[in-house]
Design brief:
This is ABC transporter permease. By secondary structure, the chain is mostly helical. The chain has helices at about 5-30, 35-60.
Length: about 70
């Protein structure tokens, strides 16, 4: 994997989801005073859908056909 591809992977799969969780936690739980169980289930459901879609788009965009741990 090239440096640019690794950076894109880190941004899409680590930084954006963490940023989403933090911002959503601040808005929904702290500012609006909602229940933590609703916050937890809603946000992790959204992140699950996000990971599936981003994984598909990432594979198509980078033309990854055979992935092996040796390349990483």
């Amino acid at each position: 994997m090239t440096y640019k591809l690794k950076l894109t992977y880190i941004v899409l799969f680590v930084l954006l989801p963490v940023l989403y969780l933090i911002s959503s936690f601040i808005v929904r739980y702290l500012l609006q005073g909602g229940e933590f169980s609703l916050f937890f289930s809603d946000n992790f459901g959204i992140l699950g859908i996000y990971y599936v879609l981003v994984s598909i788009i990432f594979m198509i965009a980078t033309n990854i056909k055979n992935v092996s741990l040796k390349d990483m």
